[in-house]
Design goal:
Layout lengths: L13 H8 L11 H29 L9 H21 L2 H16 L5 H36 L4
Helix pairs in contact: 2-3, 2-4
C-alpha cells in the first residue's frame, strides 16, 4: 500500500487549521471506503438524533407567539449542518482516516467462521450459560439454607 501525497501544512498554525477545517479535499479517498462510510453513517445518526432531541426541547421551551416559532427550526437546521460538516471533516482528518484505513486492512485479514461452526459455537455458549446459571442457583439456595438455619440470616 503506497502512501499518497498530502497537501503541505503551512507553519502559521491557526490559518492552516482553519483552511483544513473548510477544505473539501478528501484524504486518501480510495482507501478504507467501507469503514469510513460506516463510521460516517454512525456519526451522522448520532448528530441527527441529538439535533432531533434538541429540537423537541426547544419546541417545548419557547412560546409560539412573539416571533419565536422559527427559532427551533433555525437552530436545528444550523446544528444539523454543523454536525454533518464536522462528521465529514472527522472522517477525512489524516490521523483518524489512517486509523480507519488500517482497521479495514486488518478486518480483511480476519478468517470468518462458516454457519455450521457458528451454530456449534453458539450452542456451546448457551449450554455453558444455562449450566452455570443452574450451578449458581443451587449454591445460592444451599448457602441461604445454611445461613438461615444457623441464624445468620433471618
Amino acid at each position: 500500500m503506497a502512501k499518497q501525497k498530502t497537501t503541505a501544512v503551512t507553519s502559521d498554525g491557526l490559518g492552516s487549521a482553519l483552511a483544513n477545517n473548510f477544505a473539501l479535499a478528501r484524504y486518501k479517498r480510495s482507501q478504507g471506503r467501507v469503514t469510513r462510510q460506516l463510521t460516517a453513517a454512525s456519526l451522522s445518526l448520532i448528530v441527527l438524533f441529538g439535533v432531533y432531541t434538541l429540537y423537541q426541547k426547544l419546541l417545548t421551551g419557547f412560546p409560539s407567539e412573539d416571533g419565536w416559532e422559527r427559532l427551533p427550526v433555525v437552530v436545528a437546521a444550523s446544528m444539523t449542518v454543523v454536525g454533518l460538516w464536522a462528521t465529514f471533516r472527522i472522517i477525512h482528518w489524516p490521523r483518524f482516516a489512517d486509523f480507519l484505513i488500517s482497521v479495514e486492512a486488518e478486518m480483511d485479514k480476519v478468517t470468518w467462521s462458516d454457519w455450521a461452526e457458528l451454530k456449534r459455537s453458539t450452542a456451546v455458549v448457551l449450554f455453558a450459560m444455562v449450566f452455570l446459571t443452574l450451578v449458581l442457583f443451587v449454591f445460592d439456595v444451599f448457602w441461604q439454607r445454611v445461613f438461615t438455619s444457623t441464624g445468620v440470616l433471618f
